[in-house]
Amino acid sequence: MGQVGWLNINNPNQMGSVQKFSVLTGEPNTWLFIYSGLALIGQWDRGGLFSGGESSNPVVKIVLDNISGQLLGSAATASLANVIGGDQSSIQSVSLALEDNGNLVLTTTLYVYAAGGDFEDLGSYSYYVGAKILLEAATISGTIRWKKSLATPLASPHFTITADTEIPPPPGQLLGTSVVQATGLEGALNSSDDVYYYVPYSITGGLLGKTVTVFVEPIAKAFSGVPGDGNLMVTQISGPNPVRLTTSNLKVTNVDFEMDWQSAPK
Q: Which end of the chain is more exposed for a tag (fewer CB within 10 A), N or C?
């Protein structure tokens, strides 16, 4: 391997025409990511990082993304876009790897002929990458609590838990609608606290890339000893609202709720 240089995808002096496109496949939580751009290595290497005589095999690495998941398959290609001088420069190999730290790295090995060791013989090359990645599941989790003096829990489930996307109203209407993106599951009831019951929950589903609001509704028949003339109600007491799930924010925790009693209006 020749000398290795890293290009910063966010530096316009090193990269150009950077694009990314992603689409969810028909397999659970499996995405196709497509990346393309220009590596402006001639402009970047005016200091001669890859200088090594008249010919060399420099290796260029680009971090295309940072993703938590498993690379299932990929196709990558690169081609010379601007050769400043000479005609013996070429691309020898292109590969893609998802490293343990989540960096999706495109590696390109070049052959560069540069009289006098001047790497500016090669100005730039273009790349195109397709990657099929099984992403780590996006999740929302937290707890729902209520005072023991309020109600006694019976058999689970005790709550209906959903992550909804809000759809704004059409022109001329005041109220929008919501679409359920995923439903939550309760964990085991925790009654060890002297004051509160706690029920943990988690929501897993097609949440990646979406902004959702978590809604929790009590199931009345799952409780006994509830006061009459009113309703059980649940309000959020911690965590973001709404919740945005991204590749860098896959697991949102401590989205917590408390159940209380709302008397009927008189």
A: C
Where among 135, 167, 196 does a domain terminate? 135
- Per-residue model confidence (pLDDT) at position 54: 53
Q: How many other C-beta atoms lie within 10 A of the C-beta of residue 187?
A: 13
Of 19, 33, 41, residue with least CA distance to 109: 41
Backbone angles phi, psi at 96, to 5 degrees: -130, 140
* pLDDT (0 to 100) of residue 214: 97
SS3 222: helix
- Percentage, residues of the chain above pLDDT 90: 51
- HSE (side-chain half, CA atoms, 13 Å) at 149: 2
Q: Which letter, b or e, does each residue of 118-154 get, where b requires 16 or more Cβ atoms within 10 Å of its Cβ? A: bbbbbbbbbbebbbbbebbbbbbbbbbbbeeebbebe
pLDDT for 86-105, tens place per residue?
Answer: 556 788 899 999 988 788 99
What beta strand segments (E) does the chain contain? 4-7, 15-24, 30-39, 55-56, 59-66, 69-83, 90-98, 103-113, 122-135, 139-147, 152-153, 159-167, 177-186, 196-204, 211-218, 223-224, 230-238, 243-244, 251-252, 256-263
Asked if residues 110 and 57 have their Cβ atoms less than 8 Å apart, the reply is yes
* Phi (first) and psi of residue 180, to 5 degrees: -75, 120
Rounded to the nearest 5 degrees, what angle is found at the Cα of 151, between the Cα atoms of 253 and 266? 105
Q: How many residues does the chain have?
A: 266
Q: What would the DSSP string read from start to end of 9-20?
A: TT-TTTEEEEEE
**117 pLDDT higher than 60:** no
Structure tokens at 135: 């992403």
Structural domain of 193? 139-261
The label of the residue with tokens 């006098």 reads 116
Assigned domain for 266 exists: no
Q: Is residue 161 located within the same domain as residue 211?
A: yes
